[in-house]
Design goal:
20 helices, 6-stranded mixed beta sheet, 444 residues, 6 strands, Serine Threonine Protein Phosphatase 5, Tetratricopeptide repeat, alpha/beta, globular, single chain, Rossmann fold, DNA Cyclobutane Dipyrimidine Photolyase, subunit A, domain 3
Length: 444
């Protein structure tokens, strides 16, 4: 059963006279534990209609490049195959998502979609809701607790959201059965072939400046990674996750970002296994991740310096004229040409692999703030570099992490040059956590 709080009517009205139910898949690019998909299956079965699933690919999406496109296409390949096994037709179209869905929706009885967290995708759904002549139903599937259910305002920090989530978590952390499709829809509509991601990638007019990262996308790879982490990494997650030399992190972020993995699936599997790392894993996957959703939902300036807390902008402005011992522009930072071997190593890891270790990301951001002419310049560069190279870039977690560098979800600390009362990080802190020199040597 799907919790009613997951279901929102974006536009109501009577059912259309179309020949199918349409599921517009855009955020939850998977078939396992996908509430939007299963809700659409239920609706199609009740109406005695076939179900068609559609995804619209946008070549030239801002800040997307070959790295992010291939990861996404690998997910679409898995979706197409698994939906076919269930008798559900899958249609991949190229173009502007709401416009293409509007065309498909004209022949639908109703349209179901998944939930978006960032403004561009939320705007797509709003645009479609104003123009669609049939009901548009949004079903939350990528947060454990739906955003508005967890909190009705922007939360100050993890400590203010955590008790609210813990109070509700068990109510929403429940398995979801795959419904049997009563009316098959294979071949009902035609679209672009998604079975060969690399071949399809070669046909797209996209940014080719960043090659694919090391990890491969898709829900099959996501399940393999989750299983491997639960078996071999969860027991030690609490003590190893901050050491980039032992690979103690879950490495699930990109799969969650592209919707290839359900967070509910991950938590339930971790709970079944148990172990010392369970609480720390739940904190990161539920509390910290959904704190970022809260930020992006309630703060319209989540991707802008103006969206930072008033206290942090004030203290940074007060220290904007402080002497900087080192100043670097974007080109030097992007090429990892600073005096700091640890920062350079983190930047190289991100550029080469598509992933920077989470603890290093904090240090990486703090140093850019320290080495930039203004905090506004630092903010712009961090967003640009993160979104260009991180496989999980353009993500609520990414924006929350960058904003944390400047004081969001944190508190004032002891005053110091440049930072004012915003938290500072030093290389000595890295050395207390792990062998920083060995890490720097690894990424020379």
């Amino acid at each position: 059963m799907i919790h009613p709080a997951r279901i929102q009517v974006l536009s109501g009205g009577p059912l259309g006279g179309g020949q199918y139910v349409l599921y517009w898949m855009q955020a939850s690019v998977r078939t396992r534990l996908n509430h939007a998909l299963e809700y659409a299956v239920q609706q199609a079965n009740e109406l005695g209609l076939p179900l068609v699933t559609a995804f619209v690919l946008t070549p030239g999406y801002p800040e997307a490049n070959e790295r992010s496109y291939l990861f996404l296409l690998e997910g679409l390949r898995d979706v197409e195959r698994r939906l076919r096994e269930r008798g559900i037709g899958f249609v991949l179209r190229l173009g502007h998502p709401p416009e293409e869905v509007l065309k498909l929706g004209r022949a639908a009885r109703l349209v179901v979609t998944d939930r978006a967290y960032l403004q561009p995708s939320r705007a797509w759904r709003g645009w479609l809701a104003e123009r669609l002549d049939v009901p548009l139903i949004q079903v939350e599937s990528d947060a454990v607790v739906p955003i508005e259910t967890a909190s009705g305002k922007q939360e100050w920090a993890a400590r203010t959201l955590r008790p609210k989530l813990h109070k509700l978590m068990d109510e929403f952390l429940v398995p979801l059965e795959e419904g049997e499709v009563k009316t098959r829809s294979l071949g009902l509509l035609e679209g672009v072939d998604a079975s060969d991601p690399r071949r399809l990638l070669d046909t797209l007019d996209i940014d080719r400046s960043v090659p694919p990262g090391l990890e491969r996308g898709g829900e099959d790879k996501a399940q393999t990674r989750l299983s491997d982490f639960v078996r071999h990494g969860l027991d030690h997650y609490d003590e190893r996750r901050n050491d980039p030399l032992v690979d103690g992190a879950s490495r699930l972020s990109a799969y969650l970002h592209f919707g290839h993995l359900s967070p509910i699936d991950a938590v339930l599997r971790a709970r079944e296994h148990g172990g010392a790392g369970l609480d720390a894993f739940t904190e990161e996957l539920v509390v910290r991740r959904e704190l970022s959703f809260n930020l992006c939902f309630y703060n319209p300036h989540y991707a802008d310096y103006a969206g930072l807390p008033e206290w942090s902008r004030a203290t940074l402005a007060e220290h904007a004229g402080d002497k900087r011992d080192h100043l670097y522009g974007r080109a030097e930072l992007e090429a990892a040409q600073t005096h700091d071997p640890y920062w350079n190593a983190a930047q190289r890891q991100m550029v080469r692999t598509g992933r920077m270790h989470n603890y290093l990301r904090m240090y990486w951001g703090k140093k850019v703030l320290e080495w930039s002419a203004t905090p506004q310049d630092a903010y712009t560069v961090l967003v640009q570099l993160n979104n260009k190279y991180e496989t999980d870039g353009r993500n609520a977690n990414s924006y929350a992490g960058i904003n944390w560098v400047f004081g969001t979800h944190d508190r004032p600390w002891a005053r110091r040059p440049i930072f004012g009362t915003v938290r500072y990080m030093a290389a000595s802190g890295l050395k207390r956590k792990f062998d920083a020199d060995a890490y720097a040597k690894k990424w020379e």
